[in-house]
Write a structure and sequence with these properties.
Number of helices: 7
Number of domains: 1
Radius of gyration: 15 Å
Order of helices and strands: HHHEHEEHHEH
Strand order of the largest sheet: 1-4
Length: 147
């Protein structure tokens, strides 16, 4: 199995673990109403941070040619108030719900960060935890430099 395949499998496992935690804690986890408000980061006063394995997973699933730069405060993958990358969305998107308990979401986020750090250590991937616009921009810059 290639390193990219290993990363994809392991990130998928972490995402499934998030879902299991939410199902086990339905009453406080909150459920996304798919209203799209939180995808407008600036107006919602929301910031989305992503880890290195998540970006690698995202790029692998979307393919490099479909990576978009974020030019404003709204996620560039939200189209007609819907997430166009829902199956590949990041842990922060999976965890956050405007109707959920903030303490539960914070604790779940911390647990997930530990899992991603351990994954990076195990697979010898540099660990980064950066805002989504920066992660996408850095990927596009690196991709441009390779061409």
């Amino acid at each position: 199995m290639s390193r990219n395949e290993q990363i994809a499998v392991r990130v998928s496992e972490i995402y499934k673990w998030i879902e299991q935690q939410q199902l086990a804690n339905k009453e406080i986890a909150g459920q996304c109403a798919a209203c799209g408000k939180c995808c407008d980061f600036e107006s919602y006063d929301h910031r989305l941070y992503v880890t290195t394995p998540e970006i690698l997973f995202f790029v692998d699933k979307l393919s490099e040619k479909n990576i978009k730069k974020m030019t404003g405060g709204r996620c560039s993958y939200q189209i007609d108030n819907k997430c166009s990358v829902y199956d590949y969305r990041f842990a922060g998107c999976r965890i956050f719900s405007c109707k959920g308990n903030a303490d539960f979401q914070s604790e779940l986020t911390e647990a997930v960060i530990k899992k991603f750090k351990a994954l990076c250590s195990e697979l010898q991937i540099p660990y980064r935890y950066v805002e989504l616009p920066t992660a996408l921009k850095n990927f596009l810059i690196a991709e441009h430099a390779r061409q």
